[in-house]
Amino acid sequence: MASSSSEPMSRCRKCGYSAISGGTEWSRVESSLGTMTQCPECGSTDVMTGL
Ligand SMILES: [Zn+2]
């Protein structure tokens, strides 16, 4: 698979998992604040997006 540095990445602060922002790797959960990105590895929603 070709890697591209132009794709914005998201990274989990808890376990360090990273994948393309908005990619299918990430789970999404509804909260009172809206839709949040959830790490598929550890289940944390403490994810930094747009890196
Ligand atoms: Zn994680």
Report on the structure:
This is Small CPxCG-related zinc finger protein. The chain has 51 residues and is mainly β. The chain has one domain. It has no helices and five strands. Residues 12, 14-15, 17, 39, 41-42, 44 line the site of zinc ion.
How are the SSEs placed, and which strands pair?
Layout: E1 9-12, E2 18-20, E3 27-31, E4 34-38, E5 47-48
Antiparallel strand pairs: 1-2, 1-5, 3-4
The structure holds zinc ion.
Biggest β-sheet strands, sense, barrel: 3 strands, antiparallel
The count of strands amounts to 5
The helix/strand series, from N terminus to C terminus, equals EEEEE
Gap between N and C termini, in Å? 20 Å
- Stretches with pLDDT under 50, minimum 5 residues: none
How many individual helices? 0
Strand order of the largest sheet: 2-1-5
How does the overall form come out from the CA principal axes? globular
Q: Rounded to an integer, what's the Rg over CA atoms?
A: 11 Å
Q: What level of helicity do the residues show?
A: under 10%
The molecules bound to the chains, other than polymers, are: zinc ion
Strand content: 35-45%
Number of discrete domains: 1
By secondary-structure content and strand pairing, the structural class works out as mainly beta
What's the pLDDT, averaged over the residues?
A: 90
Offer a concise description of the structure.
This protein is mainly beta and 51 residues long. It has strands at 9-12, 18-20, 27-31, 34-38, 47-48. Zinc ion (ZN) is lined by residues 12, 14-15, 17, 39, 41-42, 44.
